[in-house]
Design a protein that fits this description.
CATH superfamily of one domain: Alkaline Phosphatase, subunit A
CATH topology of one domain: Alkaline Phosphatase, subunit A
Helix content: 25-40%
Structural class: alpha/beta
CATH class of one domain: Alpha Beta
Oligomer: single chain
Largest sheet: 9 strands, mixed
Mean pLDDT: 88
Number of helices: 14
Radius of gyration: 21 Å
Shape: globular
Order of helices and strands: EHEHHEEHHHEHHHEEEHEEEHHEEEEEHH
Number of strands: 16
Low-confidence stretches: 178-182
């Protein structure tokens, strides 16, 4: 059996058109896949941004377990490590600097590739020098960026590197189907950076999404939206929303190129690491917060061979910690003892499963993303109809049935209907134990790439 796992960065539930809450055809290629699989309408991420979400997705443990999310420590077993030990060939490819090998994510892979922009060493250093002098939307920087993108393919060919996330994943699938050892036990994970800010989709997708005219360029507009959303005009806000929608269309187009290569008998899992705020709660992007626009994610699973008839929906709440156990269940590989999630295979096969409380958490300040700060701790516990959020020493509730947009917080909610969540919140807060953070510095190239994505100034 082959497994293909596709994660899409900063992808909102509202912009997955196979989801019941979506109102536009953002994702036609994934819509077609959904007709062969199961859509989970209440899937929850355990963190509001990449460094907080991926430890749970890939290790079936919560973000602040085992020393936290600054680095995936050896005692925290990655899905790739478990599969590799069982004889699987594993390929991973991404373009997000948070997912680098130095953060522990590369363990267990036969091939692990970071194909981030300006990824060649000389050009990474040159890019850093440019960013020290010019902003992301400065004409000098934009010109250098354009020139690099035009030269990227021949330069990477000379360096022996692949082009992008999709091409590397396609090649891995082709090689595994072409007779290499282990082709019947292959795990390919690709993390697609689109539609992450800055929202710079191709012009054809901007036209399809009906993006209104605005002054400047997409990078400049989306950067201003992240830094000072309250200063944008309504027309600029509509342009930002349109650029994001066009970026989702671009991501779906790229995923479609990968799906062409995926064999029918493969297990295919598609999800987002987290969502994206588009002016809800005064935010654009995904700074540390625990609202549903950041935590609810699309989740689509196509079992080997697909399902009979039209695609199915499961409205039970599931969590990212359930993804790795699901893969191992289909692979016939035992779960590591530390895994906290459950396999979703029973639900995929039509059996009933119950809601499980979803814990989401972050302990980083906006000014220092990815760095653990105990004073910045936020924890939420969620069921489909309600949620509790603890931050800054107080607990608020949200009735998600009456207030799905989380506009009317309930101060310190009590009563029998909140007891299950209050118990879960107290238990999780008791479990969290902060240890000394790892003493390490981000190299210059990583710092500059995080800056380009809007994480740091």
């Amino acid at each position: 059996m082959n497994v293909v796992c596709i994660t899409i960065d900063a992808w909102r539930v509202s912009h997955a058109s196979f989801m019941p809450s979506s109102t536009d055809g953002y994702t036609p290629n994934l819509d077609a896949l959904a007709e062969e699989g199961v859509t989970f309408t209440q899937a929850v991420s355990h963190g509001p941004a990449t460094p907080y979400a991926f430890p749970a997705l890939l290790t079936s443990t919560l973000p602040l377990d085992h020393g936290g999310y600054e680095r995936i420590r050896p005692e925290r077993e990655l899905l790739s490590e478990t599969l590799h030990r069982a004889g699987w060939r594993c390929t991973g490819v991404h373009a997000n600097p948070w997912l680098g090998e130095r953060n522990g994510y590369g363990r267990g892979y036969d091939v692990y590739r970071d194909v981030g922009e300006f990824g060649l060493p000389f050009f990474e250093r040159s890019r850093g020098l440019l960013l020290d002098r010019f902003s992301l939307d400065h004409p000098v920087y934009r010109g250098a960026q354009y020139a690099y993108r035009r030269l990227q393919e021949p330069l990477r060919a000379i360096a022996g590197a692949g082009d992008d996330e999709i091409r590397v994943a396609r090649e891995a699938i082709r090689d595994d189907r072409g007779g290499r050892e282990g082709r019947d036990r292959s795990f390919v994970w690709t993390h697609l950076l689109e539609p992450h800010a800055p929202y710079t989709p191709p012009e054809r997708h901007r036209r399809a999404a009906g993006v209104p005219a605005f002054e400047g360029n997409p990078t400049g507009l989306s950067t201003r939206a992240q830094r000072a959303p309250e200063r944008l005009t309504e027309r600029e806000r509509e342009a930002v929303r349109g650029l994001y929608a066009a970026s989702v269309r671009h991501a779906d187009e790229r995923v479609g190129e990968l799906l062409e290569r995926v064999p029918d008998d493969a297990l295919v899992i598609v999800t987002a690491d987290h969502g994206e705020a588009l002016f809800e709660h005064g935010q654009v992007g995904h700074e540390p917060a625990l609202y549903d626009e950041l935590l609810r994610v699309p989740l689509l699973i196509r079992p080997p061979g697909g399902i009979d008839g039209e695609g199915k929906r499961v409205d039970t709440q599931v969590r990212h910690i359930d993804v790795a156990p699901t893969v191992l269940d289909y692979a016939g590989v035992a779960f590591p003892e530390a895994y906290l999630g459950r396999s979703l295979r029973p639900a995929i096969e039509g059996r009933s499963i119950g809601d499980r409380v979803a814990v989401s958490e972050v302990a980083s300040a906006t000014s220092a993303p990815g760095r653990i700060d105990p004073d910045a701790l936020q924890v939420s516990v969620r069921l489909p109809d309600r949620k509790l959020v603890h931050s800054e020493g107080s607990t608020r509730g949200f009735d998600l049935e009456r207030d799905p947009n989380e506009r009317r917080p309930i101060d310190d909610p009590s009563g029998s209907k909140w007891e299950r969540l209050r118990s879960a919140l107290a238990e999780r807060r008791e479990e969290i134990a902060f240890s000394e953070p790892a003493e390490r510095e981000r190299d210059e190239s990583t710092r500059q790439r995080l800056r380009a994505l809007g994480y740091v100034e």
